[in-house]
Design a protein that fits this description.
The protein has 2 domains: 162 residues, Rossmann fold (3-Layer(aba) Sandwich), CATH 3.40.50; 118 residues, N-(1-d-carboxylethyl)-l-norvaline Dehydrogenase, domain 2 (Orthogonal Bundle). The protein is of the alpha/beta class and 294 residues long. 49% of the residues lie in helices and 14% in strands. It is globular, with a radius of gyration of 20 Å.
Length: 294
């Protein structure tokens, strides 16, 4: 089997566009579709064919990669693509869809005889653009050679979590990881908001924790986006983070765990979105600490 494939990407937002470009750079034949075509059009300069419909995008594909907003959106788009899906096509599903939705997507894959891989990714805009994502994936090992070139093109490392994409093992790990990302980002915003309220120079805080166990690069990176007013273009948007936070809360509730920090983070993110920060980086949840936009 050649390692040069025909790959269809459905969804070219922040992450999907970066993944599409890296697939093209790896010399795969890439066809992309996005609900708002204008967001996909710039990819044509990278040699990507822009499709008008999901069905047009997946026709003749060896691998279909989905990176859409959520599970229901992914199922809707795949239903639109269904008339052109070939039995035996590999489906790399990278949307953070939630545990229940993964079951629905896997059922669709069975109905259309697709080889289903649950493959969410860890990383934001910069690592996505550099092809340095961490790919968490579950799916049948006997077909891995069909999807490995795709995973290698978009990620620096692939972690296999199981043999059955339908069991949600990769998605469960993604939700655990995202719970840490969201909580840390919320804490960074609150530190800066409290500093502002108390008249403390944020640099004094960073100097105090510098080099110690409380210091961390992620804290400084997210704080820097706020302090330097670099929230656009988003690395990971407020609206998407709010959706993920709700999926985390729901997963906890369904398994008998109360996740107070995740619930509060979801509310903060939703409040920031209502203030007009939905398309900005998730660090913009900082503004949710104030009654009015600052």
């Amino acid at each position: 089997m050649t390692d040069k494939l025909t790959v269809s990407v459905l969804g070219t937002g922040i992450m999907g566009a970066a993944m599409t470009r890296n697939l093209a750079r790896a010399e795969h034949t890439v066809r992309a579709w996005n609900r708002s075509r204008d967001k996909a059009e710039p990819l044509a300069a990278d040699g990507v064919e822009i499709a008008g419909t999901p069905a047009e995008a997946v026709e003749g594909a060896d691998v279909v990669l989905t990176m859409l907003y959520d599970g229901p959106a992914t199922l809707d788009v795949m239903k639109q693509a269904a008339p052109a899906l070939r039995p035996g096509t590999a489906w790399v599903q990278s949307t953070t869809a939630g545990i229940e939705a993964i079951g629905d997507l896997a059922a669709f894959a069975r109905e259309y005889d697709l080889v289903f891989y649950d493959a969410p990714v860890l990383g934001t805009r910069q690592p996505a653009e550099a092809g340095r994502l961490l790919v968490l994936v579950a799916g049948p090992s006997e077909h891995r050679e069909a999807v490995t070139p795709v995973l290698d093109a978009v990620g620096a490392r692939t972690v296999w979590t199981g043999e059955d994409g339908a069991d949600g093992s990769a998605t469960r790990l993604k939700l655990v990881a995202n719970s840490w990302v969201i909580a840390t980002t919320a804490a960074a915003g609150e530190v800066l908001a409290l500093s502002k309220a108390l008249g403390v120079d944020p640099q004094d805080f960073f100097d105090a924790i510098g080099g110690g166990p409380l210091d961390m690069p992620y804290l400084r990176a997210k704080s820097g986006l706020i302090l330097n007013e670099q929230l656009s273009p988003a690395q990971f948007a407020v609206a998407t983070a709010a959706k993920d936070a709700r999926l985390i809360v729901e997963a906890g509730e369904e398994n008998g765990v109360r996740l107070d920090v995740a619930a509060a983070s979801a509310e903060r993110l939703e409040r920031a979105a209502a203030q007009g920060h939905g398309d900005e980086d998730m660090a913009a949840a900082y503004y949710a600490s104030f009654d009015e936009q600052h």
